[in-house]
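Q: Sequence in, structure out?
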Amino acid sequence: MINTAFQIDYLKPDDAESLSLLMRSNREIFERFFPNTLQQNLSVLDSRNYIEKKDEEIAKKEEFTFAIRENNDQSILGLVILKNIDHNIGEGELAYCLDSDYHGKGITSSCIKQAIDFAFDKIDLKTLKIIAHKTNRGSIGVALKCGFQWKKTIQKAYRPPNEDFLDMELYELYYEG
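A: Exactly. Output:
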């Protein structure tokens, strides 16, 4: 069942404190697959700068970063990022992270479905990708629950900080409207 008590929306300037707190309190889980985002949000000032940069990317339709929020609360529980957008071929990639206290509740799946609707309906993408490591069962579960299908293993696709390159699993979803 998809949890509808959560929504995605753009980051706002007054989100800086909540965003920085999310990143710092989940440092151990974010540093492997979200190291750049983590490094850009280690202080409230860093997060203010990050949010300004994300606003510029949205204005240029280069990348869309959304906050995951509970409907009745404005604190940030996670992020959904629509990135690596190629408007010429109608393709983009979804990446996401969530506060560890909220794992396993259907929140990410609900928010990814909202991001899918946005990508297909608002910016006319035709293909979405999710790339996950085979050990990240939660991320793979989100991809499958949201209708993505496994396509292939990408050899040496990602290098986490201070580790060797990892093979990653590619999942894709195609617009059917």
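Residues 8 and 68 are 5 Å apart (CA to CA).
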